[in-house]
Amino acid sequence: MTEAIGGNAREQLQSYGERLTNVLNEIADLQEDAKSIRTDAKNAGFDVKALNQCVKELRKGPEYRQGQLELELVLDTYRKAMDLPTEFDAAQNQVREAAAVVPEPRKRGKQRGNGDV
Fold this sequence. Notes:
Elements: H1 7-43, H2 48-60, H3 62-81, H4 88-100
């Protein structure tokens, strides 16, 4: 069984509810603004995924960026050790070379059934 909330507690609860509603409405408006900015950036020819990553790095601060750069250095070391490209041109060349090689067609095995249903 629930008890009615009265007096000061009722006013306080209503105040919390109104304040929370206002904040959530402001957040929704700001999310629409962010969406509009992303659309404008995309229409101007920018890569929105890269923009979002840069904004993420800016928001997380210099310690995060330092950690990311250190990770990139380790990744480059590992990529070199595993004969993976570390530069864009090298990656494009690998893709071109792989695309130039046409694989042999696969031989078909026996088909199941005789096609009757």
